[in-house]
Design brief:
Elements (H helix, E strand, L loop, with lengths): L8 H5 L13 E6 L10 E7 L2 E2 L2 H4 L6 E4 H11 L5 E4 L15 E2 L3 E6 L24
Parallel strand pairs: 1-7
Antiparallel strand pairs: 1-2, 3-4, 4-6, 5-7
Length: about 140
């Protein structure tokens, strides 16, 4: 394996392939399924910027070019849910479970994070279960 050395920033910069990101970045919402209010608004756990490029196969089924990598999203949700294991769905109650690879890019506008309800890892998928979240990382 050969190693290239660059004597100046501009030399290095010539070898970088630029990626153009959207000027206004869309954000994907990740919500708690157990706290829907009467107006059917969701309780947003976090919003992540859609900066990961979709694969060519995904581009054929959506009109968006960017999304959030599944691994980043599920890890962030697990941290917010006090390190609980869980999974994502596209709907709060009886939504389609997102069953994908770690590096696939999510592109829907909203997902719900459900936690597993026991030590065997069985999913709690009724959409009514309320689980604790980490309210602050300052302490």
């Amino acid at each position: 394996m050969s190693v290239q050395t660059f004597s100046h920033y501009t030399d290095w910069h010539q070898h970088v392939t630029p990626v153009s990101y959207p000027v206004v970045c869309r954000r994907i919402k990740f919500c708690h399924p157990g706290y829907l209010d009467a107006d059917r608004r969701e309780n947003v756990l976090l919003r992540l910027p859609a900066v990961d490029q979709l694969s060519p196969q995904q581009l054929s089924v959506t009109n968006s070019d960017f999304g959030v990598q599944f691994g980043v999203a599920i890890t962030a949700c697990r941290i917010i849910a006090c390190s609980r294991d869980g999974f994502l769905t596209e709907g709060a109650r009886n939504g389609t479970k997102v069953d994908t690879t770690w590096d696939l890019v999510l592109f829907a506008d909203k997902y719900f994070f459900h936690v597993t309800n026991n030590l065997e890892g069985e999913p709690q998928f009724d959409g009514y279960t309320r689980y604790a979240v980490c309210p602050s990382f300052r302490d």
